[in-house]
Task: structure prediction
Amino acid sequence: MGKNRGERELKTTVYERLIKEMGQGSKESLRTFYMLTKPAIYGFVLAMSVDYGAAEETMHEAYIAIFDAAGTYCPKGKPMVWAFTVVRNVVLTKALQQAPAAPESEATPDEDAPQSGMDMTKMESQIIMLRDVAGVKYREIAEILEISRWMTFFVHRRALARLGRRTFAKLNDFIRGNGKK
Result:
């Protein structure tokens, strides 16, 4: 447990140093930050994106926004929470710019609601990506997504249970000889 905490503290120190250097205009620090954080940031962009085809472009725009905002970063020991917040804002801004205006008379389905009992909502996929892929803590996820810590924990557990049921059902079908993936 101490090793993980030590590694996390080292990463935090490195990320904060890189963000500070980016705030001073260092493109080499941006490149290093990009190489260290690309999997987590890209996964988060994918989890939030409406258009999966444009996710990589959105991720690059997010890194530009991180570079531009780096001068305003105040070190508080949470550089990735700050970065995820910047990324979230870029994704939401881009989605709002690309969203066609829907007439008020048309009833649109709730896009955050699962389409079947097995699908995950956007929030569930975002929380899974942040918690299980990027290793972000519940309280930090709550800050990024602007929801309560309790809700973050609840949605995460519900999503994991749903994923478990889906995996079990597919495995059962495969074992029984249906052979479907």
Summary: The chain has two domains: 1-97, 113-181. DSSP finds seven helices and no strands in the chain. Residues 104-118 have pLDDT under 50 and may be disordered. Residues 140 and 165 are 27 Å apart (CA to CA).
